[in-house]
Amino acid sequence: MRNCLLLVTVTSLVLAGCASSASTSSTSDAGPGAALDAGSLPSGDAGTSAATDAGVRANERTLDTCTTNIDANAPEFYKRYFKCVTVTTTATGVSISSNGLPPHRSYYYGSGNANFEDFDTTRGPQYRANPNRIATKTIAFGVPNTPVSRNLTVSSSLVDGTVGTSTNEYPMGPAGMALDGVALFNPLAAPGDNIENEKYTFDVYDGHPPQDGSYHYHTTSKGPLEVLKKAGLIITTTPGSASIELYGIMCDGTPVLGCKELDESSPSGSLDAQGGHAHDLNDKEGTTLLAGRYHTHLCPTSATGRKFTPEIQYYSSCTR
Ligand SMILES: [Zn+2]
Ligand SMILES: [Zn+2]
Predict the structure, then answer these.
(1) 204-225 pLDDT tens trace
(2) Distances from the Cα of 63 to the Cα of 45, 105, 185, 206, 248, angstroms
(3) Which residues have their alpha-adjacent CB atom under 5 A from ion ligand 2?
């Protein structure tokens, strides 16, 4: 599986790969998640932070209607911060899975879908939608509880933005899980493409689907932050402005944070070439959720934080 192929030249937009076929999936217009989510009822916090905008539509997929099943024996990190996923425990960690459908609105759900919204062109003339549509895609990883370091020095020569230049790159396709059950992809575009061009196809949640419909994020998104708000942990869901910024976890056990740590402090010390460092991830009460854990910070507004998901897999295994 590859990232979406979108070529943009200086003088004209040349759509290739994901543009080569307007692959409207039959599932994308059929009430996504309806079958999987049948019977799920809003949880106890329903209504506390429900849609702040125009209200929830019939059959709309939201944080209240998606299905969340997290094993009571799973680490607190998953129980506290994730929704719209299934987490089971394994001998060495957890298995985390979802149907990949964003629990928020997107242009890429397609006109007529309850979650459809117009593509936001007010962001600038560079922004143009790709022709793909969101499809149900099972995303599943095993994430170790005690990941083993590859002892890499994550330098700028390793983090080169080019696919296939290191055996330590995250795999293409789903390489992590966001807090809202959406796939995290690495920041590498297929050869000849550039994520800095592909980003102009992002919807207002900064996600997009490639031709096969597997919607994903490569960068910050208010989608995962809406999960934290739903849990009562933050107020503001604008990336860069929230009091806690956690976006998800990569398949090897590397969490992806933003401009804030889990305890609401700002990252301190030096960050490596992909915005990473290792320390205990504590909440503001001082509870350690993940001890000594390498993680990266997406914080494009800071000098050292990074704009995109990590490229280099710091820990040994990515099981999917
Ligand atoms: Zn992409
Ligand atoms: Zn940190």
Answers:
(1) 999 999 999 999 999 999 999 9
(2) 10, 11, 21, 18, 16
(3) 267
CA of 128 to the centre of ligand 1 (A): 14
Q: How far is the CA of 209 from the centre of ligand 1 (A)?
A: 7
Contact, 227 vs 265, CB < 8 A?
Answer: no
pLDDT in tens, 123-171: 999 999 999 999 999 999 999 999 999 999 999 999 999 999 999 999 9
Task: State pTM to two decimals.
Answer: 0.83
Q: How confident is the model over 76-109, as pLDDT tens digits?
A: 999 999 999 999 999 999 999 999 999 999 999 9
- Sort strands 139-144 and 69-70 into parallel, antiparallel or unpaired: unpaired
User: What is the percent of the chain where pLDDT is above 70?
Assistant: 83
Report how far ligand 2's centroid is from the alpha carbon of 267 (Å): 5
Q: 33 phi and psi, to 5 degrees? A: 80, -5
CA of 187 to the centre of ligand 1 (A): 8
- The whole-number pLDDT of residue 54 equals 57
Q: How far is the CA of 132 from the centre of ligand 1 (A)?
A: 11
Ligand 1 centroid to 175 CA: how many Å? 12
